[in-house]
Design brief:
Shape: globular
Number of strands: 5
Strand order of the largest sheet: 2-3-1-4-5
Structural class: alpha/beta
Helix content: 40-55%
Radius of gyration: 21 Å
Order of helices and strands: HHEHEHHEHHEHHHEHH
Largest sheet: 5 strands, parallel
């Protein structure tokens, strides 16, 4: 599958409204066929994860950002359904705790980075520091910063810091995949109403979700700034259409599989000494009564 329509080209400026359609799907994809392909992709991902774990050289960090009700949780649940839990870890980043506010804004993310051989998933991430904090700048006052650069300087500074952080990760074998699930305002409203009208989904809904919806345009502007400044050659952003969940899951799974395939993962090669020990162990087992 061609992923070019979903990548934010590094060094360019994009418009979410004009360049990326939340309802987009390839002309050849239908829901039934997509579910079949997703099942195959989940199995392929499981195979790659086994080799990633065995090789123990790379780690994969997958970041999901989105507006509320875009489908982050369900995408993680479906795409990662075939993964061995021992080789995968998911972190959801909420409002910082008192302990976290006593550290720099990347500290809690650094603590949650995946080990070599594992897949780490960030459900929201350090990008909240240039998204929700930008939309609600009063949050900066609680971060105990020694100084706050004026105007847009704080955001430019953080874009640079985030790019440097991700470059450091990639240089050290932690591959970074960044997904923005692009849901439309109309579809978000539909999903909110569905949560309100379905008792079994009430737990998913908070009145704060509707309050944040009032800042929709501010969030879209903040996201565009993020994409324009932090989509890089070593860690590009993928903007995934999210109005059709089945298509979202298919594309995300395919991109993850392709990235793992590009790593040319291999099971460890045994030394002659190790092979000899295996043969000796085999003989011992076969000689037992």
């Amino acid at each position: 599958m061609n992923h070019d329509p979903f990548i934010v080209p590094p060094g360019t400026k994009i418009s979410l409204k004009n360049d990326y359609n939340p309802s987009y799907q390839t002309s050849s994809e239908e829901k039934v066929d997509a579910n079949i392909k997703l099942t195959a992709g989940i199995q392929q991902l499981a195979n790659y994860q086994n080799i990633l774990y065995a090789q123990n050289t790379y780690a994969l960090l997958i970041i999901f950002q989105a507006m509320d009700a875009a489908g982050k949780d369900s995408t993680i649940k479906h795409v990662m359904s075939g993964i061995n839990p021992q080789g995968c870890q998911v972190f959801s980043f909420k409002a910082p705790s008192a302990e976290e506010l006593d550290h720099d804004y990347l500290w809690r993310s650094m603590k949650a980075l995946p080990e070599r051989g594992r897949i780490g998933i960030f459900n929201r991430s350090y990008y909240e520091e240039v998204l929700v904090v930008r939309v609600h700048p009063e949050i900066l006052e609680k971060q105990q910063l020694h100084c706050i650069p004026k105007g847009k300087q704080i955001w430019q500074q953080r874009f640079e810091e985030i790019n440097n952080f991700e470059k450091y990760l990639v240089n050290n074998g932690i591959i970074v995949l960044k997904f923005f699930l692009n849901v439309s305002k109309k579809e978000q409203k539909k999903r909110f109403l569905d949560r309100i009208n379905s008792p079994e989904k009430h737990w998913k809904f908070s009145d704060s979700d509707v309050k944040e919806r009032a800042f929709w345009d501010d969030y879209m502007n903040a996201y565009e700034e993020v994409f324009n400044h932090t989509s890089t050659e070593f860690a590009p952003w993928y903007i995934i259409p999210a109005d059709r969940k089945w298509f979202t899951r298919l594309i995300v799974a395919d991109i993850i599989c392709k990235k793992l395939q590009e790593l040319n993962l291999q099971y460890p090669t045994l030394t002659e000494e190790h092979k000899q020990r295996l043969l000796e162990a085999k003989k011992m087992l076969e000689s037992e009564d």
